[in-house]
Design brief:
alpha+beta; 6 strands; 107 residues
Length: 107
Amino acid sequence: MGQKIIVNGEVKQLPKVFNSEEELAEFLDEVLERALKNPDYASKFKEGSVTLTVELSDVGIYKEGITSVEFAFEYKNGIHYLKTTYSKTGYNVWAYKPWKRVIEPVG
């Protein structure tokens, strides 16, 4: 959401893709809801923890600068709990590369 971070003493401005936390939450809800209607994604939910990488093109969603989203679920007592989620690829997705000590766009 356009945060500023400091890397090696330099301030970096990350790209702003969502205007609010609510917009981000609605986007993630829609991606997951559509993914679970797709048998290829839904079949990955078996007993045990699940990491689900959803290609936005597979679920008919377009968000400028994001091409895939990853959801990580933890499995406890017969229920999958969402542990974390994040944008995985796209030109507005940035990654920290510790061996280079830089932040740069991914995909």
